[in-house]
Amino acid sequence: MTPILNPNASPLLRGHAMTVQSPDDTAHTPVIHTTVPHAHAAAAVGEAKIKARDVKVFYGEKQALFDVNIDIPGKSVTAFIGPSGCGKSTFLRCINRMNDTIPSARVEGSILIDGADVNAKSVDPVVLRSRVGMVFQKPNPFPKTIFENVAYGPRIHGLAHRKDELEAIVESSLKKAGLWNEVADRLHQPGTGLSGGQQQRLVIARAIAVSPEVILMDEPCSALDPIATAKIEELIDELRTQFCIVIVTHSMAQAARVSQRTAFFHLGKLVETGPTEEMFTNPRDSRTQDYITGRFG
Amino acid sequence: MTDATLGAAAPRQALTAADARLKKRHAAERRFKAQGIAAIIVALVFLVVLVGRIVSQGYTTFEAHTLTVPVYLNPDRIDTSDLSGVNYDYIVAEAVMKKLNVQDDDLGTISTKVQDLVSRDFGFQILNKLKADPKLIGQTIELHGPLKADADLYFKGEIKRETAEGDRKLDNQQLDWLDKLEKTGAIKSGFNFAFFTSSDSTEPEQAGVLGAVVGSAMMLIITALIAVPVGVLAATYLEEFAPKNRWTDIIEVNINNLAAVPSIVYGLLGLALFINWLNVPRSSPLVGGLVLALMALPTVIIATRSALKAVPPSIREAALGVGASKTQTVFHHVLPLAMPGVMTGAILSLAHALGETAPLLMIGMVSFVPGVPEGFTGAATVLPVQVFIWENASERAFHERTAAAIIVLLVFMIVMNAAAVILRRRFERRW
Lengths: 297, 431
Fold this sequence. Notes:
The complex is a heterodimer of chains A (about 300) and B (about 425).
Chain A: H1 16-19, H2 31-34, H3 38-44, E1 48-59, E2 62-73, E3 77-81, H4 88-95, E4 105-113, E5 116-117, H5 125-131, E6 132-135, H6 146-156, H7 163-176, H8 180-183, H9 196-209, E7 214-218, H10 226-239, E8 244-248, H11 252-258, E9 261-266, E10 269-275, H12 276-281, H13 286-292
Parallel strand pairs in A: 3-8, 3-9, 6-7, 7-8
Antiparallel strand pairs in A: 1-2, 1-4, 4-5, 9-10
Helix pairs in contact in A: 6-7, 6-9, 7-9, 9-10
Chain B: H1 3-9, H2 20-58, E1 63-72, H3 88-100, H4 109-115, H5 121-132, E2 140-146, H6 149-155, H7 172-183, E3 187-191, H8 194-197, H9 210-241, H10 246-258, H11 263-277, H12 285-309, H13 313-321, H14 326-354, H15 358-362, H16 383-391, H17 396-429
Antiparallel strand pairs in B: 1-2, 1-3
């Protein structure tokens, strides 16, 4: 069912992280450790879709994120990397206010999408989440039919007024997610009956169906086998022409393959951000370098 | 950590070595299995004894002996101006005496003894027939009806000829008559339909469970209509929407405590609240249902909350992630997924309410109600209370009816539990 893995499918730096040479540690001046990261982040991005300024997140008394400043460009893939518990998922969940569901979580600072603050009182999280879709670590289709899974979002947001409109949205979303050919003849069978990789693409189709501008992906391939992972990565590469994609990943190889920009988080701080190629070949910060060469994390 | 270091540190025993520790462990496993099987056997024995005793006592109720006899509607004995005042029992006794070829004496002892064998149901049949068609007077009509309970018990072997005459309800002459009637083919045994089509009566052979079954059903409808929606909504709010703070903790603890409150306390509450304060008619399915709803509510809430807790958080995230509101998430996804659990909890607590007796005694349901309740505010009796009333009756025939009513109650519960299983399956199949 699943086509064989084509190692050349991704145009990006497949496995680049493994071949990175350790740059000279002494080349790094203390300036980089102390500068405010957004200074060069802003400089590197022309038109930022998402601008985060001094974002702090607290879980009760514990601070999970410290002054994150980052600009994320539209119509490209930005990867968040870093060791477990470094705050990359926490920051991702700030962008569509999923942290609102955690009673003890408190977010400070501002996150602007196209200049509008997502945390403003006037912003309804429901509207925000229809513009900022999310794909989770474990494929989580609704225990309903494939059709219903994709149709649910457009239905609750009133995007389709007639049945044929809804069907058209479902079809185009499934096509964009590269799943149409596999499920066209069984749209009314349960979505939970698909394989893990298909489920994850179904979930992506569900996110696409409400035509968001941003898609957040929280380790979307960590529960998948390498073949399914390759398909998702291909899909991400296709989707970046239409969406602003932010992906959290534990796999540096994946970050190198799919992203144009990478941000490295460590201990709740955004250490470094820049074009992916540059990050993996010539990281400015020694911690980034240690991480991508596998010295910790 | 190489194999070499491991081997050097602790030399491995051969796999087949009958080590003492291994033996001990196997013995412990065997002991545990034996104890488990013993526990199951004990439970099964209790169940078999309980059900066996009830069935062995009650099954005879489902058989009844009936008498077919031609009755001459003697115009001399029937006062057409007052049909209800006529002594029909005597007319029936005459018919039976004619069949037996015996004559009444001056004191009427023979006819009285004959009347002890035949149900008063015959008299009511004649009255109803005459009311419908007074022209029947002077004719002979064929009547078919139950024997009196004691005569019925004689044919079932409950009253035996071997028993000393003074110790049994029927004397030798009456038993001879019954034998004679049976020989003529006038007495037949058949299924006791009357037990299911009639309500409580002072005459055991005319007493049935219909009124109690209908009363129980009506009361359960009230209980279900109140306890299930209120319980599910309360649980959903507490579980999904309420902030987690001291107040919700206090509410939760109190709900858990309410589930353990003795049921008779709910009866007292119902008496004070519904009957004395709100003036709901006592002994009605409405007030019974309200009291049982109070009692079932904590159980429904606890079952619903645990069913909601069992829904994986990934479903909530998925729904919120596509921009569903909190309410949409809960009502489109979480609650439907929790529904099988909610249904099971609700039906089990309703089944529990069905068997509840104590609180109903407090609200006046322990009364003689010879009929099907007239609506939700009419006087009613329910199955467990009917069992309680019959158990206290002195006639021996009521004792077999007690057991039979318990069987009906158990069947009612089995049907409800089966409904729970079927509903559960149906809801689960949808996914």
